[in-house]
Write a structure and sequence with these properties.
Layout (H helix, E strand, L loop, with lengths): L1 H9 L11 H8 L8 H10 L7 H56 L3 H19 L11 H18 L11 E6 L5 H11 L6 E6 H24 L6 H4 L5 H19 L2 H9 L11 E6 L6 H16 L3 E6 L13 H14 E6 L5 H9 L5 E2 L4 H17 L5 E6 L5 E8 L2 E5 H5 L5 H10 L2 E7 L7 H16 L3 E6 L27 E2 L2 E2 H6 L10 H4 L4 H17 L3 H10 L1 H6 L1 H16 L1
Parallel strand pairs: 1-4, 1-5, 2-3, 3-4, 6-11, 9-10, 10-11
Antiparallel strand pairs: 7-8, 8-9, 12-13
Helix pairs in contact: 2-3, 2-22, 3-4, 4-6, 4-7, 4-10, 5-6, 8-11, 11-12, 12-13, 14-21, 17-18, 18-21, 22-24
Length: 602
Amino acid sequence: MRRGISSLKSLGFVKKSTISNKIFSIALRFHSNSPPSLLENYKNLVEQGKVQHDPYQERVAFELEKLLSRLQQYEKDMGDYYVKLAEWEEKREEERLKLLVKEAKEKQETGGGGIWTSVNKQRNRILEKFAIFGKKGAEIEPGVGRWVSYLNRERKLDSLVGRRPIVPPAPKGLYIYGNVGSGKTMLMDMFYSVTEGMVKHRRRFHFHEAMLNINAHMHKIWKNQVEGKTLQSNISSWIINLPFDMKVKEWLAAEERYKQDVQMKNILLAVADEFLMDQQADERGASILCFDEIQTVDVFAIVALSGILSRLLTTGTVLVATSNRAPRELNQDGMQRDIFQKLVSKLEEHCEIILIGSEIDYRRFIAQRSNDQANYFWPLESSALREFEKMWCQVTNQLGGQITSETIPVMFGRVLDVPESCNGVTKFTFEDLCGRTVGAADYIALAKNYHTVFISDIPLMSMENRDKARRFITLIDELYNHHCCLFCSAASSIDDLFQGTEEGALFDLESFQFETETEGGKLRTNVLAEGNVGSGGVPSGIVSMLSGQEEMFAFRRAASRLIEMQTPLYLEGVRSLHPYFQKQHQGFGNILSSNLQARASS
């Protein structure tokens, strides 16, 4: 299986998604070799009848086109900026080490008098200021002397090297919000596609994947910090080789550790600085972040998004984002108001806020025109189940027929058991995927490892199985975002799967797996994976964060995407997007086509 996945990657099949709208991927095949025009592409789709014209969508396409026109010059400006920044950082570090060595030399020569006299004078002045406000010297936290020393050194560096180079003014991004199926993600992904080759760093995240990446980066930084502390007895080689006694060398090592500790206090800034960088790319230039479905489901999402997006926008990243709400309406539960307001201010400063005001769900519109749900078998009765199993046999036979079980890696060192798989195709029951303590990380791993997923025995979902319903919604989001082909057997039609929310909001533990608080010394991700939330169950404060309105939006989005995933246009897009179907297993694509034709005529 691993070799199969590697061969698929070499063909460009299993890779990071670049176009989540399949219709657009088809249109690109017929586009000329001239520089891409997003607005022209949109109009071509309308003329071909593959997209229904919408004035709101056309306005967004026009604004994205204007943004594209500014990116080429901005990429050049950012390239020049990073050259200056690298020179500045190198010079600053060189001068910083000189200052440290100078201070160490003074300490060596005076036997601890000169340097500490200066520090103590600074400390005494601070103590006097505290005394003015009624603070006692005993209340000053330990290490204030080292903090003063650090600040003085930073001021000297500013005077010697100058302040950090100023980031060139970035073109404003777009924050696109509107109803389910209004075309937000389609337009964002059209933009993302045509930026390939225009800028050096570009990433496209859905909310779930972004939060997991943030969590992973934080975990990595924390782990490195812990490992670094265990090695504190080891003094850096550059310090060891200096002609000072051991006491002075220990002082130097302590100053270096203190600098690292100061930087670690701003962990979100450190995460942001690595968030968009390709680990294999040495060149620096402009950065684009396309962020699908911005939401604030919990305190961690607000704090993390505020810290990271603020840093990225301040340092020149261009953001194109989608959401169901305007920025000021994201946090209707009032969590962390001050931090949230800073996030809103940054979004409004760096993005044009644009509403796609259409009430039409265009996914449903397309599905109604095709009048088909090709790979969705319902209800759970003998004839539908036979068709579902027949399709599984046809697909796996076409791909070699060797059914195996295996495990695939998931983030944070976990694995997911896969009961049945065959060369990029897999089958699970609903309970396997949604009845256990799994979440977005598992579904992302699933979507990245398998191009086609069969899910059997999907039940009706209501408050009685609300956790399973929320997991299912997250699963559909990730399969859709990664362009997977989906076959389902279910208890009802798609529109009837979700049975109301009048009893209250559906609650999902996985929605809060990103919290940084611990329980019994364990990361929250581990607590949730073990199903251990304490004897009191779910904290009432967390339950109150979710509203029935938000759940209804999630249901509508999942149903809308499920409907699109059954349409001929979606499946044609899957075939067009993935060379795997065209080169290696064209017969599999023919199965899809024949299934569409057979069911349409039945």
